[in-house]
Amino acid sequence: MKYVTTIEDKEHIVEVLDERHIVLDGKTLEVDFQTISGQPVFSLLVEGKSYEAYVDLADDGLRVLMRGILYHAGVEDEREKRLRAAAGGGVIESGEFHLKAPMPGLVVAVPVSEGQKVEKGQVLIVLESMKMQNELKAPREGAVGRIRVKAGESVEQKQTLLSVH
Amino acid sequence: MFKKVLIANRGEIAVRIIRSCRELGVETVAVYSEADRNALHVRYADEAYLLGPAPSRESYLRADKILEIARKSGADAVHPGYGFLAERDDFAQSCEEMGITFIGPKPSAIAAMGDKAEARATVIKAGVPVVPGTEDVGNMRDEDLLGIAPQIGFPLLIKATAGGGGKGMREVKSLEEMPALIKSARREAESSFGDGNVYLEKLVEGARHIEFQIMADGHGNAIYLGERECSLQRRHQKLLEEAPSPFLDEDLRRRMGKVAVKSAQAVDYVNAGTIEFLVDKEKNFYFLEMNTRLQVEHPITEMVTGIDIVMEQLRVARGRQLSYKQENVKMTGAAIECRINAEDPYNNFLPSTGVITQNIIPTGPGVRVDTGVYPGFEITPYYDPMIAKLIVWGESRGQAIQRMRRALEEFRIVGVRTNIPFHQTLMESTRFLGGQYDTRFVEERFWTPESNDRSVPLSEIAAIFATLVAHQQTQRSAQIVRRGERDASNWKWVGRWERMHR
User: Fold this and answer.
1) Active site residue B10
2) Which letter does DSSP use for residue B451 in this model?
3) Region B166-189: what's the mean pLDDT?
4) Pairwise CA distance, residues B273 & B109, whole Å
5) Rounded-to-integer distance, Cα B487 and Cα B464, Å
6) Nearest CA in chain A to B464
7) With contact defined as beta carbons under 8 Å apart, do B264 and B222 qualify?
8) What is the value of ipTM here, to two decimals?
9) B interface test, pick of A2, A75, A120, A125 with most B CB neighbours within 10 Å
C-alpha cells in the first residue's frame, strides 16, 4: 500500500511492501516495527538503527513525539489524495464547533454570552483544574451558540461547554 | 529518635519523608483522601488512615482530623511536607498544645515570615537588604499606596501580604494604571488567601531568583547548605532548579549565605528553611521571602552536599544539635531538577488527567527520581499537577546537563501528557547551556508556538512511524470487515468503523 505522509510541510511517499520492508521516497528499507506493551509507545528498527516514539491520533492527523520533538503528521493513501485533489481540495472551516472540557474541573468564568461574535483565540471559558486556571480559547472566529454551563459549575472531561458557529 | 511520625501530606513528598523515616527505623503514619487510597504513600507507610473526600479542604487541609489521627495512632511527631498545612502557624500551635512535635519551626517564626510585609519589616531591622518598597506593615489604603508609588519608582509590583505563587501580584508601569491594578490585586488576594492586604515593591529587572537552604537547631547553631538557582519559571511556578547557581561566585555565595542565616536568626528560626533572594544584573541581592518548610527542590541540595535534609529535620526536631558545622558543608559537582508535570506543553500547558498506564523511570549513574505515581494510578484534577521530580548529579554542570538529557529521553510516562518535551527543548537551548537566563526567560523568549517550529532532523523517521501506525489502523479495520455478514459493502463497513472510533 502506498501512502503520502506529510511531516510538518514536507511530503514523503511511503510504500509498505510487507511486514519487514518499506520504500521511503524511492529507497527500500528494512524495518522492524513493534508496539511496546500495547501502548502508544512504538519501537522502530530501520536498517539496524533503533528509534522510539510516542504516536497518537489527534483530530487533525497523527502526533509523533520523538527525542523531545513533536512532529505533526498527516497520512493519506494515494487513492484518498487523488480523490481529494479531484474534489478541489482545501478544508473549509465551517459547521459548528463544540468546546469540550479537556479535563474535569470547575468553571470559574464564562466571559462570553450567547450570540456574541468572537475572534480566533478569544477566551470562551476559564476552567480551574489542578489548582490552575486554564483559559479555553476559540479555535476560529464565529458566534457563540448555546452556552451549557455557568460559573461555579463542576464539569466532567469531554463534557460540551458551549458551541461556536 | 521519634517512635512514630505522621506525614500530613501526599504524593512524592510524603513518599520522600517516609523513606528517611524508614532509614532511621521510625514508624510512619500516612493520611489520605478518598482519591488516594491506592497512592504510593499509603502503600509505603506502616499505618494509613482516611481523612475524607478528595478535595483538599475536606481532606489534607483538615487539621482537626489529622491531629485526631495523630493522637489515636500514637504518633509523637508530625511532618507537614510542603503546601497544605506546612506554613500554618495555627496548625503548628495545635500540635504543640497536644504534645506532638511539629517537624518545622516554631509557630511564631511561621507567623512572622508568613506575613510578607511583617517579614520585610523584621529582616530590615536585622540589617538584611530588601527590595525597595513600602515599609509599613500591611493595612495600607489605596491613597497611601498611590502616594508612595512615585518614590519607589516604576515599574513596580503590587504584592499580596499573605501571598505566594504569584496570586494577587500585579506589575505596574505607570501611576495612571495603578488604581485599577490595586483593585484587581486586592480582589485576587482576598479570594485566594482571605486577606486583601497588599504592599509595593520595586520591580527588579533582569532578576534572578536564587534561594539559600538553611538549617538551624534549638541550640543556637545555624548554617546554610548553599544555594539553588530557581529562575526558570512559568506563571511564577518553578520548572527547573539547579545547584550551584552558574551566576554566583564563592565570595557572593558566602555573603548571601551569611545574610540568609542572619534572616533566619531574626525570627529565632529552628529546622529547615529557605531564604529567597532576588539578584540583579549587578549582583546586588535582596531578601524576597522565607519559606518556613521543606522545599520541593530540596533534593538538588542533597545531591551536591550529601546531606539528607529530611533526616536532619527529624534530628533537629528531636532536640539534637546539627550534625554539621558550616565549614563541613561542601558543595560537590552540580545537580539539576526537572519538575515533571501532567501538563501538555503543546496545548498551552493544560493539565492532563487520566490513568498512568506505563511509567518507565530513568535510572543509572547520578539519577534520582522522587515520585508518587506508578502504572495503574490515576491522576485526578484535585491536586498539584507535579507527578515526579527528575534529579541528576554530575561532576560539572556540563555533565549534569548531558545526564539530564539522557534521563529525560529514558522517561516514558503513558496515560497522561507531560512537560518532558519542554525540558528536553530547554536542555538544548543555548541560553540555558550558557547559564544566561532570568525569571522572564521561559515566558519571553523560550516556549512560544513559533519557537516550536524548529528544524525537523528526524523527519523521515517520523514519517515512517506515522505511516506504519496509520497502516496498522487500516489493517485492523480491514480485519474487522472480514468478520460478520457481508450485508453491506466493505467501504460502508470501513466508514462505520471509522465513525465508531471517532
Assistant:
1) no
2) G
3) 90
4) 11
5) 35
6) A14
7) yes
8) 0.73
9) A75
